[in-house]
Amino acid sequence: MEKATDTVKRGLAEMLKGGVIMDVTTVEQARIAEEAGAVAVMALERVPADIRASGGVARMADPKVIEGIMEAVTVPVMAKCRIGHFVEAQVLEAMGVDYVDESEVLTPADESYHVDKHRFKVPFVCGAINLGEALRRLGEGAAMLRTKGEAGTGNVIEAVRHMRSITGEVRRLATLPEEELMSAAKELRAPYERVVEVARTGKLPVVNFSAGGIATPADAALMMQLGADGVFVGSGIFKSEEPAVRARAIVRATTHYEDPELIAEVSRGLGEAMRGMEISEISKENLIQFRGW
Amino acid sequence: MAGNEPTIGVLALQGAVAEHLVMIEACGARGVGVKRPSGLDGVNGLIIPGGESTTVGKLIDEYGFGNALLELGAAGVPMFGTCAGLIIMAGRVEGRHGPVLGLADVTVRRNAFGRQVDSFEEDVIVRGIEDESRPFGAVFIRAPVIEEVGAGVEVMARLEKGVVMARDGNYLTSAFHPELTGDTRVHDYFLRMVRESISERDMEV
Asked: Which candidate among A195, A253, A257, B153 keeps its CA 20 to 30 Å from the CA of A121?
């Protein structure tokens, strides 16, 4: 019997494809998410919009909160550790969390290095804004990727930019002759072997979800049509007027992302979406997406 | 129909749909993703893939797939459930959330091997597939196990914890993910069930 192989780690992410992973902060929210059809929940103490509003250092959630959520639902439970905080990751692994998100949404713990994810049995998901960052995370052992977007804004523009950037760079790599791949690796600041793998197969070797700023069913379907394997919705659900109804609508729109009639139907009368922020009004040092190295 | 390639539907509500489609093509059949009950028309076999069983169970209800899938099964069309698909097809499910379709005469337990850190790969002997003495590299992810099988159910593979692959007439179920390997023998076996069911139908006509 072999545990924690790449196949097993990446395999769980394959099973989540076409689904919605929802941020939850309480047992009650976790139940609402599961009832609405979430494929997994992300247990955390504050959703990104609240982290943004209240400031201070954002850390791994209280184990009691995470354990309560693990007790309450049958879907997989993910939890976030700070970038580079390998002890938070060890704690989450010891608790039996199903996936660790080494997340820029929390305050980074290391300004130079990410967690060495190869050393863990628990699989990791990491954020990326471009292909180079995605491949660096894979080089460190991530088993799943997500585009970062700009968390807690309810504004989908950054999620779109990051997804287009990654899919565009993958397409470009696939057209390059072998002798140009080393220079491509240098430009991308990415491990050469990973660059060669993407160039040969024309796709990422792991599942890639979209995250950061998704607030409506149409946002979710947009990211799916742009090539996401699934979506993370953070503040978008529990910062809206009617979380249960919106959660269910986003799940349906993600399944049927190519069916505008159905998206119209599920989008009717959802109540107010989260308010949302214009990205240009956020100062550069407050942009979460640039955390990560 | 005989002579033509069979068409295999893969329930495409959520989960590892693409991997099954690749395997179906590799076995020389035509695969189609099914997102609506109307998509079941004309399929010669159906795969319910791995995914999150709680989620897929809800979406089956929501899109009115329940009766359509029960009718398909009752008509004798071969159906294959992997992991979450096994839970969806099982007659009895232990623990929270009851059975969904209740087609196969088996009792399953969700997450029988533990959480994700306990997921594993293991070589198992699968009876009935081609070259059966050669182990199949099976991938178990938060996998269920079959704790009990009914009288007419053929046990095809087993681990210490319990049964991990079984056939109940036209219902094939596995706790592991044959679609995550490069080995087509389990899908070949299912395709054989499909071809046999097509030729039996032709004989009746």
From this structure: A195
Q: Are B52 and A16 an interchain contact pair (Cβ–Cβ within 8 Å)? A: yes
**Residues listed for chain B:** 205
- CATH number for region B7-204: 3.40.50.880
Report the distance separating Cα B136 and Cα B126, nearest Å: 7
Whether residues A74 and B97 touch (CB distance < 8 A) is answered with yes
Catalytic pick among B179, B187, B196, B200: B179
What does the alpha-carbon distance between residue B192 and residue B93 come to, in Å, rounded to a whole number? 28
The pLDDT profile of chain A, 293 residues, written as one tens digit per residue, is: 999 999 999 999 999 999 999 999 999 999 999 999 999 999 998 998 898 888 889 999 999 999 999 999 999 999 999 999 999 999 999 999 999 999 999 999 999 999 999 999 999 999 999 999 999 999 999 999 999 999 999 999 999 999 999 999 999 999 999 999 999 999 999 999 999 999 999 999 999 999 999 999 999 999 999 999 999 998 999 999 999 999 999 999 999 999 999 999 999 999 888 888 899 899 888 899 999 99
Question: What was the ipTM of the complex prediction?
Answer: 0.93
Question: Is B179 tagged catalytic?
Answer: yes
